[in-house]
Hints:
Blueprint: H1 6-18, H2 21-28, H3 32-46, E1 51-52, E2 61-62, H4 64-91, E3 96-101, H5 103-120, E4 125-130, E5 143-146, E6 154-168, E7 178-179, E8 187-190, H6 195-206, E9 212-216, H7 220-229, E10 234-237, H8 238-243, E11 253-258, E12 262-270, H9 277-295
Parallel strand pairs: 3-4, 3-5, 7-11, 8-9
Antiparallel strand pairs: 1-2, 5-12, 6-10, 6-11, 6-12
Helix pairs in contact: 1-2, 1-3, 1-4, 2-3, 5-9
Amino acid sequence: MGDFELRHLRTMAAIAEEGTFGHAATRLGYTQSSVSQQIAALEKAVGGPVFDRPGGPKPVRITPLGEVVLTHGRELLAKAETLTDAVDRFRAGHGRIDIGTFQSVSNLILPSVIRRLLAEHPGCDIRLSDVTPDDARMGERDLLFHDGPVAGDVEHVKLLDEPYLLVARPGALPAGPVRVKRLDDVPMVAWPPTYHQRWLERAFARAGARPVFVFRTTGHETILSMVRAGIGWAVLPWLALHGLDAWSDEQLSIHPLTPSPARELSLHWPAGRTESPLAIRTREIAVEVARDLADRM
């Protein structure tokens, strides 16, 4: 069997429904000679007539071969329509997007991003996955929020510089900034030695401070609970404290540090991979949300 085009099948279906080549041509916006040429090309491709043509005003009759071609042709046309619709939806920003994230972003940045994305594209499919600080890999994700190096060939946009702040019990320190050196030999509660915790402790050491870590635990709320209990102070990123509304907690006192340690939060995506409109729009929204947060720091 030779090659034929979907338009040939579309024309055949119109003839079968309208009964004549002329009526099909009017419906499709073709000339009658163009309709005849398309059917001739289709018959050449399938190796036989698909219509019996009685001539005059009488309707054409579909042949047994034509019945086979039309039955399967309608299935192809339906699949082609589904494909066209899917492509149109993809270009309009629908479809699926896979995003890697971590705790602070999940609590504070992503909810705003997702609300705006769903408002613009209610049919999109958003998939989220947690990324561990010491094993950030792009994998098959479309986007990855991270605050450190990401393995693989990636591009990124900087979202914000996030300062770390000192959290203590009220009255433990005068109001205002605290020099990092003041943390030397101070009991502290902290994360386990993840990539950024190690970086933070190196920043302490460069400033002349070597705190005594009396408890290491994951989870910012757990760390703040230990500070409230009085076991030690903590140094946590701004997003974590903002997300937990720590400034309104009467059992906590929050202070800027000098010099101020800060981490760079970025959004990464695979280099060299064609991006979907949905991924591009998500990145645009994330940049806007991060800019608004940075203005409040």
